Amino acid sequence: MITFFVALVLLVVGYFVYSRVSEKIFAIDSRPTPAVAHPDGVDITPLPKWKAFLIELLNIAGTGPIFGAISGALFGPVVFLWIVLGCILGGAVHDYFSGMISSRNGGQSIVKLSGRYLGKAAEVVMRIFSVILLILVTAVFVVSPSTLLESLTGGKVFAWIWMIVILVYYLVSTLVPIDKVIGKLYPVFGVVLITMAVAVIVGIMVKSDRYPMLELIGNFRDFSAANGDLPWWPFMMTTVACGAVSGFHATQSPMIAKCIKSEKDGRQVFYGAMVAEGVIALIWAAAAMAYFRVDTADGWSALAAIGGNSTSVDQIARGVLGKVGTVLAIVGVVICPVTSGDTALRSARLIVGEVFKLDQKKIVNRLILTVPLFAVVIGISIWNFMDPHNFNLLWHWFAWANQFLAAICLWVCTGYLLKTHLNKYSSLFTAVPAVFMTVVVVTYLFAEPEIALGRVVPYPIALIVGGCVTLVPAIYYLYRLFSRSVLIEPADLPPERPDETTTVQNP
Asked: pTM of the entire structure?
């Protein structure tokens, strides 16, 4: 229990200290945000800070900090280190800068920001990649709540019927103004998500004699590899994404960047929501380790057989909290994926809309953009239902794609700091986690045994390739860092003058 509370304190302290460091490096000012400068009543609309925070939390959370954290429990207490350090130094920085840079650029998506700070080639790649990822997210978050609801109704209401209901909600939520559905429902859902996590950890502590929490000291080893499964590197970093570092968040922060009323709100909304998600992930990882007793061979095998899904959530909540826990589990496991699926589809609409430069204040234009995306989501959802193997395969690629996007976003943030700050060494703040995530995604691509490359490349070779490939962007970054001349785009220019640049010489 000591390890859990130390980790919890570190997350809270990390927020109060490192978020202010992030804010200072970004250099906020009093310029009007998009919500104040040019609201459109649909996607760009001012929201109170507390509401923006809860919406951001629901946008980024999904089932990630629950399912991912439960699966991460299979690595043992070492996962606490990843959640704490990953969240404070990587994930929250990733979310804060992606949101604030978007606000500085009129609410542009991560795709447009990639083109601006990494080049047009990066923008093209990111546009294709991000839309595919968002469609996958939407489709993935149709399957789990649909199958759970079928189970809860005793099979009387089939999963495909629930799928239709959820998809209809996705369509409506994507088309209507953000403050009409999302703005009204998400604050309530956010409270439910937080209440569920708090109730679970309190229940574990009350029943600590039956479900003892594991300590890092004495258990500082890789539980997964010891039981013949995948090692912690790099798979823990892709298994536990939400709650530590998650690229999906880069598609969500720009949506709320369109709604904050002041740059001062960004620290609490973006950095704060990510730390809150880290706390939720910490709770579920601790609860899963304690409930399933993963320090024993039988306990580890029991959790490995189930994995992080609605079944394991139901077992933990039911065992710890009884009937109350079952209700909370049902609400949470249904709400969490649905509230990420609809915003994923909305984000995809906004990104595609940037390409065709369609005025999305008009409902007909939103329909033109949404209907084709919606059709693809339906197709993938049906494909997922046809065979469980399809879903598992899709999940492996999604895990890689998600963290690949995180790496790219952190490089975008680094490019922003290089181009807008006279002190180029401030870019190390995002460059270090960018290099780390680049190693993760390259190594994963060569080491994951369920996808093509991992089937033929030995694990030791994958580690070497991961390190060597990462040297390319790392060396280029160092060249940019130490070059004497750089094109500076003054960070203090208002959004209406984004293209004005000045050449300066470093001393």
From this structure: 0.88
Beta bridge partners, 505, equal 485
Report CA-CA distances (Å) from 422 to 103, 409, 486, 488, 494.
21, 21, 9, 7, 18
Identify the helix (H) or strand (E) that includes residue 502. Answer: strand 502-505
- Is 193:332 a contact under the CB 8 Å cutoff? yes
Written as one string, the DSSP assignment of 412-462 is: HHHHHHHHH-S-GGGGHHHHHHHHHHHHHHHHHHHH-TTSHHHHHS-HHHH
- Are the beta carbons of 462 and 454 closer than 8 angstroms? yes
What kind and span of H or E run contains 387?
A: none
b/e per residue 171-202 (b: at least 16 CB within 10 A): bebbbbebbebbbebbbebbeebbebbebbbe
CA distances from 495 to 35, 37, 193, 198, 491 (A): 12, 9, 36, 41, 10
**Tokens 């998650």 -> residue:** 246
pLDDT score, position 350: 85
Q: CB atoms < 10 A from the CB of 20, how many?
A: 12
253, two tokens? 């922060």
- Give the count of domains, the chain: 1
Residues in contact with 7: Cβ distance below 8 Å, sequence separation at least 6, in sequence order: 80, 83, 84, 282
**β partners of residue 486:** 504
Q: What is the distance between the alpha carbons of residues 329 and 74, in angstroms, rounded to a whole number?
A: 21
pLDDT tens digits for range 222-279: 999 999 999 999 999 999 998 999 998 998 899 999 999 999 999 999 999 999 999 9
Amino acid of residue 385: F
- Pairing of the two strands 502-505 and 485-488: antiparallel
Q: Which two tokens stand for residue 60?
A: 């980024």
Is 232 domain-assigned?
yes
In a domain, 443, yes or no: no
Secondary structure (H, E, C), 117-132: HHCHHHHHHHHHHHHH
In a domain, 503, yes or no: no
Q: Which alpha helices (DSSP H) does 176-222 contain, by range? A: 182-206
Domain with 293, as residue range(s), is: 2-398
Phi and psi based region of residue 357 (left: phi greater than 0; alpha: psi -120 to 50; beta: remaining): left
Contact 186, 341 (CB under 8 A): no
Q: Are 211 and 204 in contact (CB under 8 A)?
A: yes
Examine residue 433 and say whether the peptide bond preceding it is cis (omega within 30 degrees of 0). Answer: no
Residue 426 located in a structural domain:
no
CATH code for position 348: 1.20.1740.10
- Measured in residues, the chain has a length of 507
| Per-residue model confidence as pLDDT tens digits over 60-101 | 876 778 889 999 999 999 999 999 999 999 999 999 999 999
Q: What three-state secondary structure class fits 17?
A: helix
Neighbours of 392 (CB within 10 A): 12
In angstroms, how far is CA 272 from the centroid of its own chain?
Answer: 14
